[in-house]
From TrEMBL:
Domain of life: Bacteria
Record organism: Pseudodonghicola flavimaris
InterPro entries registered for this protein in UniProt: Dimeric_a/b-barrel
Record's protein name: Ethyl tert-butyl ether degradation protein EthD
Length: 237
């Protein structure tokens, strides 16, 4: 899983809005039948965790992270006639017609992976952080980050995934605005309670201490708690 495609929709007018099960299922069906997809995650925002980072944006009403082993497979899915064009007319996306959309493809670095062993394992809580700005020296910044910050994340109690993504040039023709965030990272826990326990543990102070050692950058970061569903892929699409 070397590449990931992120797509998110933020309803700024009604940030606590939730999509219905049928709307989410329509998105899940499209994702699950994507040719070349190696893993598909469907996200819905968890509002209750935002109080721990009150200056952050509220999480998206709908999001996804789609993994591909090759850039060619990713770009084929996003092509003018690609499979993921079906998202444009699906019920959930129509319901969010006035929402702010963001899309980006990125390179994936995995530092911890806990594959699901049961159907229950396919539902968990992710914590996605993005850095939308720029670094004084991006090479130095990323080098420091990947050599140090994931090692501190490993100390969180109950952590099941650690991932760092960085930007790349990519071809795609879904109609929504692109972003070019310099980096995203994601950690995951069994449930929301596990995430809350982790970010209130002493490890959070260690994360802050390491954050303060980052090479110079601007633009800050944002944190989103996301109820996550790992989709069972189907090859009938």
């Amino acid at each position: 899983m070397r590449f990931a495609y992120f797509l998110s929709f933020f309803d700024r007018e009604d940030p606590t809005r939730e999509l219905g099960a049928a709307e989410l299922e329509g998105v899940a069906d499209i994702i699950a039948t994507t040719p070349g997809l190696s893993r598909g995650l469907l996200f819905a925002g968890v509002q209750e965790v935002a109080k721990y980072y009150p200056n952050d944006d509220t999480p998206p009403q709908l999001g996804m992270e789609l993994y591909f082993d090759t850039i060619e497979a990713l770009e084929a899915a996003l092509a003018r006639d690609g499979h993921l064009q079906a998202l444009v007319g699906c019920e959930a996306v129509r319901a969010l017609a006035g929402a702010e959309a963001q899309q980006q493809a990125m390179v994936v670095r995995r530092f911890k992976d806990t594959p699901p062993r049961s159907a229950e394992d396919r539902s968990f809580c992710s914590y996605l952080v993005h850095y939308p700005g720029t670094a004084e020296d991006l090479n130095e910044w990323l080098d420091y980050y990947v050599r140090n910050h994931p090692q501190v994340m490993q100390l969180f109690p109950g952590i099941r995934e650690i991932e760092v993504c960085s930007r790349l040039d990519w071809c795609g023709f879904l109609p929504w605005p692109r972003v070019n965030y310099m980096q995203r990272n994601k950690i995951a826990f069994a449930d929301v309670a596990g995430l809350v326990a982790a970010i209130n543990s002493p490890v959070r102070a260690e994360m802050t201490a390491d954050f303060n050692k980052f090479p110079p950058f601007e633009g800050g970061n944002c944190h989103y708690a996301l109820q996550t569903r790992e989709l069972e892929l189907r090859r009938d699409g």
